[in-house]
């Protein structure tokens, strides 16, 4: 019963994600050089675009001027977010991408968005360091007639964004739990552990809830749980604590492959291998471990690092008034949630080429 219901849900999500990918790829062409880095964190930096493709863009020369601001790339996944965004801009010949230096300071990011507003950009793609803290300035941009595309961390008001692109945090938990249920094959007394990220973040709560719900459907529960902080050091410390408290474990879900480097270090130091582990996010090193089949890591759940890149493609469509791929409806959806597939040894070659480095 649990497998069929969850499979139906995953198929629906996957179908939506496929439509999103088709729409975004249809919008792509080629041309814009990669942005450089800024020496002044308070100043947005413009990057020259490629040749105009004759589209109906706004701004000088028909260009669509898109401001992009995100957190500092102090984490493998965040670095991949930026790289994918820059690569997306290269492929859109009528886009002029204006990049603000990454920061984890909400006040500084607010000032960057205000600079975009004053510069009258055509659209803003924003991965906020704190969704609630950036809500007011995003609303200000919307009131100024500048569409905002919210990425990954949601604002606290629906008026703050024209469109939102999200990974499926709840779906990650469902995917991880479903995989563990399948692998344990009805072992009702199995001991399941969870190594979460930062517990205060809504995304962590969503991941844990999805995991709990999926396990419940097959009669399992989380027996041991710790939270880390999405860092290698935090992953190692939290896992050492977990292993000391649980002398026997059958399966572990670790929310994040970056902190998973520390998780693996703690597991090796404790000389524990009686369990299998599922990772989260989809890093290249995690997929290489899965492919080798030598360690406890048997799978990882994708959390797409393409969200900002998708946001840039959407911003262009919105400004130009273009349709969203092959959808019958006019315009761009207000909310897009990407899929959370499970990568195993059987399908790792499909995903490893696009994986990010931790």
Automatic annotation (TrEMBL):
Q: Does the keyword Signal apply?
A: yes
Q: Name one GO cellular component term.
A: cell envelope
Gene3D superfamilies assigned: 3.40.50.2300
Q: Does the keyword Signal apply?
A: yes
Name the UniProt key words of this record, in alphabetical order. Signal
Annotated compartments: Cell envelope
* Pfam families tied to this protein: Peripla_BP_4
**Family from the record:** Belongs to the bacterial solute-binding protein 2 family.
Protein name listed in UniProt: Sugar ABC transporter substrate-binding protein
């Amino acid at each position: 019963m649990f497998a069929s219901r969850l499979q139906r849900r995953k198929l629906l999500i996957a179908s939506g994600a496929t439509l999103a990918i088709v729409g975004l790829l249809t919008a792509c062409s080629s041309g814009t050089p990669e942005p450089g880095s800024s020496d002044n964190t308070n100043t947005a930096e413009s990057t020259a675009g490629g040749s105009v493709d004759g589209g109906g863009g706004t701004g000088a020369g028909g260009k669509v001027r898109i401001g992009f601001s995100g957190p500092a790339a102090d984490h493998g996944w965040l670095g991949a977010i930026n790289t994918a965004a820059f690569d997306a801009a290269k492929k859109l010949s009528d886009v002029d991408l204006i990049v603000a230096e990454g920061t984890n300071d909400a006040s500084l990011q607010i000032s960057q968005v205000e600079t975009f507003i004053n510069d009258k950009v055509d659209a803003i793609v924003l991965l906020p360091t704190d969704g609630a803290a950036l809500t007011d300035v995003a609303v200000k941009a919307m009131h100024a007639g500048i569409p905002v595309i919210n990425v990954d961390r949601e604002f606290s008001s629906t008026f703050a964004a024209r469109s939102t692109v999200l990974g499926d945090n709840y779906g990650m938990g469902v995917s991880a739990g479903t995989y563990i249920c399948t692998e344990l094959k009805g072992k009702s007394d199995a001991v399941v552990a969870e190594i979460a990220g930062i517990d205060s973040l809504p995304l962590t709560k969503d991941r844990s809830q999805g995991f709990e719900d999926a396990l419940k459907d097959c009669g399992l529960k989380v027996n041991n749980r710790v939270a880390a902080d999405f860092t290698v050091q935090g992953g190692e410390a939290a896992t050492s604590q977990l292993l000391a408290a649980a002398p026997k474990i059958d399966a572990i879900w670790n929310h994040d492959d970056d902190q998973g480097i520390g998780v693996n270090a703690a597991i090796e130091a404790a000389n524990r291998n009686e369990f299998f582990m599922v990772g989260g996010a989809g890093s290249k090193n995690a997929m290489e471990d899965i492919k080798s089949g030598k360690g406890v890591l048997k799978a990882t759940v994708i959390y797409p690092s393409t969200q900002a890149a998708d946001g840039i493609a959407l911003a262009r469509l919105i400004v130009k008034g273009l349709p969203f791929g092959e959808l019958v409806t006019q315009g761009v959806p207000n909310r897009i949630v990407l899929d959370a597939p499970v990568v195993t040894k059987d399908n790792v070659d499909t995903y490893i080429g696009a994986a990010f480095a931790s």
